[in-house]
Amino acid sequence: NPHGVFLVAEDDGQIVGFLYADSDDLDRQFAHTWACIMYVVVAPEARGRGIAQNLYDGCEKRLRELGVTDVYSFASVAGDGAIVKFFEKQGFARGHEYVWMDKKL
What we know:
- This protein has helices spanning 51-65, 82-89, and strands at residues 4-11, 14-22, 34-42, 70-73.
- By secondary structure, it is an alpha+beta fold.
- The chain has two helices and four strands.
């Protein structure tokens, strides 16, 4: 995907995390070029070592190279809230809050 960024973190040959961002949003035509960070995943045993930060820094650099001017993401408030804190550390502000709704068919 020429509009996406997919980065993988490895430790001793083992994948310990990944990040995926996509700027190909056909539903929204903004004045700026936007990208959405879809996934930031770090294996539980590898957390606290700066892996997510390295993935994010590499992603932001690549998005700038693609001409992206604004970035957004969705972060679950479930659990310990670590992903929300991570994004706030990167300068993200809380936006709209949603409630997950589902139905078993």
